[in-house]
Specification:
The chain has about 375 residues and is α/β, with parallel strands linked by helices. Helix content is about 35%, strand content about 15%.
Length: about 375
């Protein structure tokens, strides 16, 4: 049977409307912040610049990072920054601006990572878990004394750690916390769990709000120092919060690194040519981050502007890593799939500005509403 001309016209108009919506920038926006190190200098500088650019582009000094992203992920120090930017003050607004969050980490750094000596014969330097926990709890408690949980965030949050009980990665998420109290944890404990560097802190035992789920956590950076892939996988499978997603073509991802930890190649080796033990952890964390970067870069190769990685790479220019004021002036670096890196013509600051332009070019009203934390969500595969 021949399709009528009217029918063809109807289908043609529907197709054009669908294509217009697809090309209109209606993408799910993902922000990912690496772990690595204790200062968060690189990601902190990027976050401050990101929020400042959002305010400039919108002409609204009250605009916040969380207003323009649908999900935020973080590991280690990146998880603490992500939690502060995302924590709900009780009125649906974040507890901290980007400047306030970075300033808090900087001002309280000595308490967050308070060094103590342990052992009698062989003295070793370790961080004080109690001191870190006090600072984390202070930051993630409202003025009225409410201790925030995973459910108390403005937008979905993803934070990984490694669970010694199950010998597997464990990913904390607001989606799971909203589904069941058995996956809801105090937010400060989540940040403590993902920061439990086994070389400097004891594993951290934490239990869900209802006491049914426990985790003996060590540093999430050992398995997901760059949590971008975890965030992308989460949104692709969470159809209740992100029903319109069909693939990476529907995503806009900004991934913030915290600079390389393994230093220049010469310093990794001893005089005998062996790899120095103190650099092994740095190599692991850098390797995890760069592998994820390469995989995502390849997944977004059809449109590089949909995936932006901001990373401080001072040693590529012969230095030992940039200072705060140098991070944005440094030229961006792109990871090539199993082929090293190459310097880009744009600086990190310019790349963030271009990214923000895409976020706000059409105005907030044209962007899809971010998931509501009160909406029902479905559990992921294997209950998480």
């Amino acid at each position: 049977m021949e399709i009528s001309k009217v029918t063809l016209e109807i289908f043609s108009k529907l197709e054009q409307q669908w294509l217009t919506q697809r090309e209109g920038g209606r993408k799910t926006r993902v922000l990912s912040i690496d772990g690595g190190g204790t200062t968060g200098i690189s990601s902190g500088a990027a976050l401050i610049h990101l929020e400042h650019q959002i305010q400039l582009k919108t002409g609204n000094s009250d605009s916040r990072i969380v207003d323009f992203f649908d999900i935020i992920a973080g590991t280690g120090i990146g998880a603490f920054l992500a939690a502060m930017l995302n924590a709900d003050n009780g009125n649906g607004r974040p507890l901290f601006t980007a400047k306030e969050a970075v300033r808090f980490v900087t001002d309280r750094h000595a308490e967050l990572y308070k060094v103590k000596n342990v052992g009698v014969v062989h003295r070793r330097r370790r961080f004080s878990g109690k001191s870190m926990e006090k600072v984390l709890k202070e930051a993630l408690t409202r003025d009225d004394g409410t201790v925030l949980t995973l459910k108390d965030t403005c937008k979905p949050l993803i934070v990984p750690c490694y669970d010694l009980n199950s010998s597997a990665p464990f990913v904390f998420s607001r989606a799971d916390a909203s589904e069941s109290a058995s996956y809801n944890f105090d937010l400060w404990k989540v940040c403590r769990a993902t920061s439990a560097d086994p070389s400097m802190l004891k594993p951290f035992q934490l239990t869900s709000i209802d006491g049914k789920t426990s985790c003996l956590a060590v540093d999430g950076g050992l398995v997901m120092n760059n949590p971008s892939a975890a965030a992308v996988t989460h949104v692709l499978h969470n159809k209740r919060d992100f029903p319109s997603l069909t693939g990476v073509e529907d995503l806009l991802v900004l991934s913030l690194g915290n600079g390389p930890l393994s230093n220049s190649p010469e310093r990794k080796l001893s005089r005998g040519g062996y790899c120095r033990n103190q650099y092994v952890v740095g190599i692991v964390l850098d390797g995890v981050s760069e592998t994820v970067d390469q995989i995502l870069g390849n997944a977004f190769c059809w449109n590089h502007t949909d995936y932006i990685r901001i990373q401080a790479n001072g040693y590529l220019n012969g230095g030992v890593g940039p200072k705060v004021e140098e991070v944005l002036m440094e030229r961006g670096v792109e990871s090539l799939p199993f082929g090293g890196k190459r310097l880009l013509t744009e600086t990190n600051g310019e790349r963030i500005e271009s990214f923000v332009q895409r976020l706000v070019a059409s105005g907030r009203s044209s962007l899809p509403p971010s998931p509501c934390k009160d909406a029902a969500v479905s559990q992921l595969v294997n209950g998480r």
